[in-house]
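hey so u asked for the seq, here:
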Amino acid sequence: MVWKRTVNGRLLHFYLAGINNQNFLMRDKETGSWWQQITGKAVYGPLKGASLELVPNDELSFGQWKSEVSTGRVLVPVAKYEKEYDSKWETEVAKLPVVISFPGTELKSRDVVVGVTIEGMARAYPWDTLVKQSPVVDHVHGTPLLIVVGPDRKSFRVFVSRIDGKDAEFFLKGDTKDWVLLDTATASEWNFQGCATAGPASGKCLDRVPALKDYWFDWRNYHPDTTFYKH
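ran it, structure tokens below
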């Protein structure tokens, strides 16, 4: 997740302060307030109750990102700490026992989900289901959603599934080696960025929806009323 560091016009500087239920806590140097990573909210200190502003961002493989942004910059490791970086960090974390669990659902604590929130209503999409069924069309709080896994089967994006104010469904075009979506409203072709590249809707782009790839137990903990997609 990416958050703006400015609160009430004041630029804050953050550092890792602790771990809460395997979700890290940040502390700002200016006020000493503690902030929750997943929600962007201050949970303790002078700024308690304040919220950071979410910055639109993607979770993409490097290959997918490079194919879209040829002039982008890459954050490289700090040379003197490079040996301390663990290339197997995610694999090792996935083996750790969880400190909280929510029995009674079909999902396991360490199942990976893509979570979205629309006007306060949360919904989780199991990653394995998305990989098998992408593109997935769903509705949350009356908003039509399009959830797609990219051609690399690692990257994902979520869009409002609406063209010129009208709901639309999408499916993968099967007669081409390239990754192309077709919509049922205009029969236009769409790329992974959510933009039409051919057909009546050419040049138009779908609205993006913020989404988070997370473990089920973590998403469920901070979104207690969440539902999850099953089909």
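The domain at 112-213 is CATH 2.102.10.10 (Rieske Iron-sulfur Protein). DSSP finds four helices and 19 strands in the chain.
lmk if thats what u needed
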